[in-house]
Description:
By secondary structure, chain A is mainly alpha-helical. Chain A is built from 4 helices and no strands. Chain A has 2 domains: 2-86, Helicase, Ruva Protein, domain 3, CATH 1.10.8.640; 88-119.
Amino acid sequence: xxxxxxxxxxxxxxxxxxxxxxxxxxxxxxxxxxxxxxxxxxxxxxxxxxxxxxxxxxxxxxxxxxxxxxxxxxxxxxxxxxxxxxxxxxxxxxxxxxxxxxxxxxxxxxxxxxxxxxx
Amino acid sequence: xxxxxxxxxxxxxxxxxxxxxxxxxxxxxxxxxxxxxxxxxxxxxxxxxxxxxxxxxxxxxxxxxxxxxxxxxxxxxxxxxxxxxxxxxxxxxxxxxxxxxxxxxxxxxxxxxxxxxxxxxxxxxxxxxxxxxxxxxxxxxxxxxxxxxxxxxxxxxxxxxxxxxxxxxxxx
Lengths: 119, 172
Protein backbone atom coordinates (compact mmCIF):
# COMPACT_ATOMS: atom_id res chain seq x y z
CA UNK A 1 0.00 0.00 0.00
CA UNK A 2 2.86 2.33 0.91
CA UNK A 3 4.60 1.61 -2.39
CA UNK A 4 1.40 2.32 -4.30
CA UNK A 5 1.00 5.67 -2.49
CA UNK A 6 4.62 6.59 -3.30
CA UNK A 7 4.08 5.69 -6.98
CA UNK A 8 0.89 7.80 -7.12
CA UNK A 9 2.63 10.77 -5.47
CA UNK A 10 5.59 10.49 -7.85
CA UNK A 11 3.30 10.28 -10.88
CA UNK A 12 1.31 13.27 -9.67
CA UNK A 13 4.48 15.32 -9.11
CA UNK A 14 5.81 14.35 -12.53
CA UNK A 15 2.55 15.39 -14.19
CA UNK A 16 2.64 18.78 -12.44
CA UNK A 17 6.28 19.44 -13.34
CA UNK A 18 5.62 18.34 -16.95
CA UNK A 19 2.67 20.71 -17.30
CA UNK A 20 4.66 23.53 -15.65
CA UNK A 21 7.51 22.90 -18.08
CA UNK A 22 5.10 23.12 -21.03
CA UNK A 23 3.55 26.30 -19.68
CA UNK A 24 6.99 27.84 -19.13
CA UNK A 25 8.12 26.97 -22.66
CA UNK A 26 4.97 28.41 -24.15
CA UNK A 27 5.45 31.66 -22.23
CA UNK A 28 9.15 31.97 -23.13
CA UNK A 29 8.34 31.48 -26.82
CA UNK A 30 5.95 34.42 -26.69
CA UNK A 31 8.46 36.79 -25.06
CA UNK A 32 10.76 39.03 -27.08
CA UNK A 33 14.41 39.30 -26.11
CA UNK A 34 14.84 43.07 -25.82
CA UNK A 35 18.60 43.02 -26.31
CA UNK A 36 18.67 40.60 -29.27
CA UNK A 37 17.75 40.88 -32.94
CA UNK A 38 14.30 39.36 -33.39
CA UNK A 39 14.88 36.43 -31.02
CA UNK A 40 12.49 35.05 -28.48
CA UNK A 41 13.57 34.72 -24.85
CA UNK A 42 13.34 30.97 -25.37
CA UNK A 43 15.92 31.05 -28.21
CA UNK A 44 18.30 33.51 -26.61
CA UNK A 45 21.14 32.90 -24.20
CA UNK A 46 21.77 36.57 -23.50
CA UNK A 47 22.14 37.68 -19.91
CA UNK A 48 18.75 39.41 -20.05
CA UNK A 49 17.05 36.31 -21.50
CA UNK A 50 18.58 34.06 -18.84
CA UNK A 51 17.28 36.33 -16.07
CA UNK A 52 13.79 36.44 -17.61
CA UNK A 53 13.85 32.63 -17.87
CA UNK A 54 14.63 32.43 -14.14
CA UNK A 55 11.87 34.91 -13.30
CA UNK A 56 9.29 33.05 -15.43
CA UNK A 57 10.38 29.76 -13.86
CA UNK A 58 9.88 31.27 -10.41
CA UNK A 59 6.46 32.72 -11.27
CA UNK A 60 5.26 29.44 -12.84
CA UNK A 61 6.34 27.53 -9.73
CA UNK A 62 4.51 30.09 -7.58
CA UNK A 63 1.38 29.08 -9.49
CA UNK A 64 0.82 32.28 -11.47
CA UNK A 65 -1.23 31.95 -14.64
CA UNK A 66 0.14 32.76 -18.11
CA UNK A 67 -1.99 35.90 -18.18
CA UNK A 68 -0.59 37.07 -14.83
CA UNK A 69 3.00 36.48 -15.94
CA UNK A 70 2.44 38.34 -19.24
CA UNK A 71 0.78 41.15 -17.34
CA UNK A 72 3.69 41.38 -14.87
CA UNK A 73 6.28 41.55 -17.65
CA UNK A 74 4.34 43.95 -19.88
CA UNK A 75 3.89 46.22 -16.86
CA UNK A 76 7.69 46.38 -16.49
CA UNK A 77 8.73 46.38 -20.16
CA UNK A 78 5.60 47.38 -22.07
CA UNK A 79 3.68 45.29 -24.62
CA UNK A 80 6.81 45.27 -26.78
CA UNK A 81 8.09 42.31 -24.77
CA UNK A 82 5.11 40.22 -25.98
CA UNK A 83 5.07 38.75 -29.47
CA UNK A 84 1.28 38.42 -29.38
CA UNK A 85 0.07 41.95 -28.87
CA UNK A 86 -2.90 41.89 -26.50
CA UNK A 87 -6.28 43.20 -27.65
CA UNK A 88 -6.49 46.70 -26.21
CA UNK A 89 -8.28 49.91 -27.18
CA UNK A 90 -5.21 51.24 -29.00
CA UNK A 91 -4.66 47.96 -30.86
CA UNK A 92 -8.24 47.47 -32.16
CA UNK A 93 -7.21 48.93 -35.51
CA UNK A 94 -4.23 46.56 -35.78
CA UNK A 95 -6.36 43.52 -34.98
CA UNK A 96 -9.42 44.34 -37.06
CA UNK A 97 -7.90 46.06 -40.10
CA UNK A 98 -7.16 42.78 -41.97
CA UNK A 99 -10.78 41.66 -41.52
CA UNK A 100 -12.12 45.07 -42.59
CA UNK A 101 -9.90 45.02 -45.69
CA UNK A 102 -10.99 41.45 -46.40
CA UNK A 103 -14.67 42.42 -46.22
CA UNK A 104 -14.11 45.55 -48.30
CA UNK A 105 -12.22 43.47 -50.88
CA UNK A 106 -15.12 41.00 -50.98
CA UNK A 107 -17.65 43.79 -51.48
CA UNK A 108 -15.47 45.31 -54.19
CA UNK A 109 -15.14 41.97 -56.03
CA UNK A 110 -18.88 41.39 -55.71
CA UNK A 111 -19.62 44.78 -57.26
CA UNK A 112 -17.17 44.19 -60.12
CA UNK A 113 -18.59 40.72 -60.88
CA UNK A 114 -22.16 42.01 -60.64
CA UNK A 115 -21.38 44.86 -63.01
CA UNK A 116 -19.77 42.50 -65.55
CA UNK A 117 -22.73 40.10 -65.36
CA UNK A 118 -25.13 42.96 -66.09
CA UNK A 119 -23.16 43.78 -69.24
CA UNK B 1 -18.30 53.35 -63.10
CA UNK B 2 -14.73 52.44 -64.05
CA UNK B 3 -13.62 55.80 -62.68
CA UNK B 4 -15.34 55.01 -59.39
CA UNK B 5 -13.36 51.74 -59.06
CA UNK B 6 -10.13 53.53 -59.83
CA UNK B 7 -10.84 56.06 -57.08
CA UNK B 8 -11.46 53.20 -54.59
CA UNK B 9 -8.26 51.37 -55.63
CA UNK B 10 -6.18 54.57 -55.43
CA UNK B 11 -7.67 55.42 -52.03
CA UNK B 12 -6.80 51.98 -50.64
CA UNK B 13 -3.26 52.18 -52.12
CA UNK B 14 -2.72 55.65 -50.61
CA UNK B 15 -4.06 54.41 -47.26
CA UNK B 16 -1.69 51.39 -47.24
CA UNK B 17 1.24 53.59 -48.30
CA UNK B 18 0.39 56.06 -45.50
CA UNK B 19 0.25 53.28 -42.86
CA UNK B 20 3.57 51.82 -44.04
CA UNK B 21 5.15 55.27 -44.13
CA UNK B 22 4.04 55.99 -40.57
CA UNK B 23 5.35 52.64 -39.31
CA UNK B 24 8.71 53.25 -41.01
CA UNK B 25 9.13 56.44 -39.06
CA UNK B 26 8.36 54.75 -35.76
CA UNK B 27 11.30 54.22 -33.41
CA UNK B 28 11.84 50.47 -33.13
CA UNK B 29 14.52 50.67 -30.46
CA UNK B 30 13.14 49.48 -27.16
CA UNK B 31 12.70 52.24 -24.64
CA UNK B 32 11.60 52.17 -21.03
CA UNK B 33 10.34 55.75 -21.14
CA UNK B 34 6.81 54.42 -20.64
CA UNK B 35 7.79 53.73 -17.04
CA UNK B 36 8.08 57.45 -16.31
CA UNK B 37 5.28 58.53 -13.99
CA UNK B 38 4.74 55.01 -12.72
CA UNK B 39 5.23 54.13 -9.09
CA UNK B 40 8.19 51.88 -8.34
CA UNK B 41 7.29 48.43 -7.02
CA UNK B 42 7.65 47.38 -3.43
CA UNK B 43 10.79 45.27 -3.47
CA UNK B 44 13.08 44.12 -0.72
CA UNK B 45 16.73 44.35 -1.65
CA UNK B 46 19.43 42.64 0.38
CA UNK B 47 22.05 44.94 1.84
CA UNK B 48 25.40 44.54 0.17
CA UNK B 49 27.63 44.69 3.22
CA UNK B 50 25.38 43.72 6.11
CA UNK B 51 22.52 41.40 6.97
CA UNK B 52 18.92 42.40 6.44
CA UNK B 53 17.17 44.11 3.61
CA UNK B 54 16.24 47.54 2.33
CA UNK B 55 12.59 48.05 1.53
CA UNK B 56 11.85 50.37 -1.40
CA UNK B 57 9.02 51.87 0.67
CA UNK B 58 11.76 53.62 2.68
CA UNK B 59 12.56 55.73 -0.39
CA UNK B 60 9.65 58.02 0.50
CA UNK B 61 11.75 59.30 3.42
CA UNK B 62 13.82 61.47 1.08
CA UNK B 63 12.69 64.08 -1.42
CA UNK B 64 14.61 62.58 -4.34
CA UNK B 65 16.29 59.22 -4.75
CA UNK B 66 18.52 57.92 -7.47
CA UNK B 67 18.53 54.17 -8.00
CA UNK B 68 21.69 53.10 -9.79
CA UNK B 69 22.17 49.58 -11.15
CA UNK B 70 25.87 48.84 -11.52
CA UNK B 71 28.53 46.14 -11.45
CA UNK B 72 32.31 46.04 -11.25
CA UNK B 73 32.49 44.04 -14.49
CA UNK B 74 30.56 46.71 -16.41
CA UNK B 75 32.80 49.10 -18.34
CA UNK B 76 30.22 51.90 -18.81
CA UNK B 77 29.60 51.83 -15.02
CA UNK B 78 33.22 52.83 -14.54
CA UNK B 79 32.68 55.67 -17.00
CA UNK B 80 29.61 57.07 -15.20
CA UNK B 81 30.99 56.65 -11.67
CA UNK B 82 32.55 60.11 -11.47
CA UNK B 83 29.13 61.64 -12.23
CA UNK B 84 27.55 59.63 -9.41
CA UNK B 85 30.31 60.90 -7.13
CA UNK B 86 29.46 64.43 -8.21
CA UNK B 87 25.77 63.90 -7.48
CA UNK B 88 26.46 62.24 -4.12
CA UNK B 89 27.31 65.61 -2.54
CA UNK B 90 23.82 67.00 -3.32
CA UNK B 91 21.95 67.49 -0.06
CA UNK B 92 18.46 66.62 -1.28
CA UNK B 93 19.37 63.47 -3.14
CA UNK B 94 20.00 59.97 -1.86
CA UNK B 95 21.75 57.50 -4.13
CA UNK B 96 20.94 53.85 -3.71
CA UNK B 97 23.28 51.45 -5.43
CA UNK B 98 22.07 48.08 -6.63
CA UNK B 99 25.05 45.89 -7.33
CA UNK B 100 23.95 43.69 -10.21
CA UNK B 101 25.12 40.06 -10.66
CA UNK B 102 28.52 40.78 -9.20
CA UNK B 103 31.19 39.26 -7.00
CA UNK B 104 31.27 40.99 -3.62
CA UNK B 105 35.08 41.07 -3.59
CA UNK B 106 35.26 42.77 -7.02
CA UNK B 107 32.52 45.25 -6.15
CA UNK B 108 34.33 46.23 -2.93
CA UNK B 109 37.55 46.74 -4.88
CA UNK B 110 35.69 48.88 -7.44
CA UNK B 111 34.29 51.13 -4.70
CA UNK B 112 37.57 51.44 -2.82
CA UNK B 113 39.33 52.48 -6.04
CA UNK B 114 36.67 54.79 -7.45
CA UNK B 115 34.90 56.03 -4.29
CA UNK B 116 31.50 55.18 -2.86
CA UNK B 117 28.67 57.54 -3.91
CA UNK B 118 25.94 55.33 -2.43
CA UNK B 119 24.06 56.22 0.75
CA UNK B 120 22.55 52.75 0.70
CA UNK B 121 24.24 49.83 -0.99
CA UNK B 122 22.23 46.76 -1.91
CA UNK B 123 22.78 43.71 -4.06
CA UNK B 124 20.84 41.79 -6.66
CA UNK B 125 23.12 38.78 -7.07
CA UNK B 126 20.96 36.94 -9.64
CA UNK B 127 19.40 39.97 -11.37
CA UNK B 128 15.82 38.86 -10.67
CA UNK B 129 14.92 41.78 -8.39
CA UNK B 130 15.96 44.24 -11.10
CA UNK B 131 13.28 42.87 -13.42
CA UNK B 132 10.76 44.56 -11.10
CA UNK B 133 12.26 47.90 -12.14
CA UNK B 134 12.21 47.11 -15.87
CA UNK B 135 15.98 46.83 -16.07
CA UNK B 136 17.39 45.11 -19.15
CA UNK B 137 21.05 46.00 -19.04
CA UNK B 138 23.39 48.00 -16.87
CA UNK B 139 24.14 50.70 -16.04
CA UNK B 140 20.64 52.05 -15.61
CA UNK B 141 19.63 54.89 -13.34
CA UNK B 142 16.19 55.85 -12.10
CA UNK B 143 15.29 59.16 -10.47
CA UNK B 144 12.38 58.84 -8.04
CA UNK B 145 10.47 61.41 -6.05
CA UNK B 146 9.07 61.13 -2.53
CA UNK B 147 5.80 59.72 -3.89
CA UNK B 148 7.88 56.80 -5.21
CA UNK B 149 7.13 57.86 -8.77
CA UNK B 150 9.72 57.58 -11.54
CA UNK B 151 10.69 61.04 -12.80
CA UNK B 152 13.52 60.08 -15.13
CA UNK B 153 15.05 56.86 -16.37
CA UNK B 154 18.52 56.72 -17.87
CA UNK B 155 19.52 53.64 -19.83
CA UNK B 156 23.28 53.44 -20.22
CA UNK B 157 25.90 55.54 -18.43
CA UNK B 158 24.83 58.96 -17.24
CA UNK B 159 26.90 61.87 -18.50
CA UNK B 160 27.49 65.53 -17.82
CA UNK B 161 24.22 66.51 -19.51
CA UNK B 162 22.22 64.04 -17.39
CA UNK B 163 23.91 65.30 -14.20
CA UNK B 164 22.87 68.86 -15.07
CA UNK B 165 19.31 67.68 -15.74
CA UNK B 166 19.15 65.78 -12.43
CA UNK B 167 20.55 68.76 -10.51
CA UNK B 168 18.00 71.03 -12.15
CA UNK B 169 15.15 68.73 -11.08
CA UNK B 170 16.30 68.22 -7.50
CA UNK B 171 17.13 71.88 -6.93
CA UNK B 172 13.77 73.20 -8.15
